[in-house]
Amino acid sequence: MAIVTFPCPPGDPSLGVNVALIDPVTGNALPEQAIVPCDNRDWEVNQLCDYDTETGALIASFTQIFEWDEATGSLIITLVRSDDPTIIYVPTGLVRACNTPRVDIEITEFCYEAQPDQLQGWQAWTFTDGLYTGSVYYALDGAVLVDPVAVQCVGLTIDIEITDFCYESGPNVFQGTEERKFVGGVYVSSIYKDIDGAVLVAPVAAECTEVTIDIEIVRFCYDVAGEILEGTEERKFIGGIYDSSIYKDVDGNVLVSPVPAPCVNQSVIVDIEGSPFATVGRLSNINNTTEQCIPANPQRRQLILQVEGGGSMYVKMGSGVTSTSYTYVIPANGALELPHPQIYTGIVCILKVSGGSNDVQWTEVYF
Question: pTM for this structure?
């Protein structure tokens, strides 16, 4: 309740003080009634408004603060601005409850001319206290339309067409997809993605010339706290070029940054007609500066490496093995058997991890 006037000076608070009251919500006058002590507590009535008596326009909003003074037995009323409680406010118009308009937004389909086509967008309708006050029009991509020519939406559909898309990346050409959007049969826009679904930003289109994607699954072993576990490596080749690998454990869970390790105590079963051949070779005095390599063999079915001596070896499926570019690390006096049956048949190169030199004995089974 908001107190507006005192008909007489406050009396003894124990007997009550009669004052004039108004309802801050409705603005109606209330019957006279007693006001009793408030145990030295303050309280306030938030957000009353001062309106112009002629135009009805809002002049300002303010707050009434009531304080019971126990020492004098009087009720102190203070009016302050709502936007700055440090400023005392004196109303100049009609004081009543504030009218806060309710604003609602309704979104509906909207079609407009874009010669010679008909396009679809959205119309945002604004209603203030239930009355329509205006609209904003948007294209499908969210751009605001200025004075669009509205037409009836007739058979307007949105279709997505996905096609192959090839693009340049350095000297190579890679394959992805293009998602083309058609509204009412009219092409609107495209989104380009790589083979993994990542969006490409301004890709350079290239001619698709028999770009193929192949997945090769091989056995893969990794080290977990000194224990050698076995899983699989899924190698992706795009256009015959190695792209990436995904490593998984035996349950199919993806491994994040596994530490490669030689697969030990594994056997190979060759299911090919004919008798296999075996070649035993030796790489001598391998040091940590110059790699030594086992040549490629397209008929390879198995390759076993045995380190002789007390030094670890970097092993790479390919040439150019370094301390930052390798496939496996064979520990001192350890062995490595390349994953099979889809075994790598290219060149295999070896480099010692630290100083000194050691020999590596290798055995290759082929047909």
Answer: 0.30
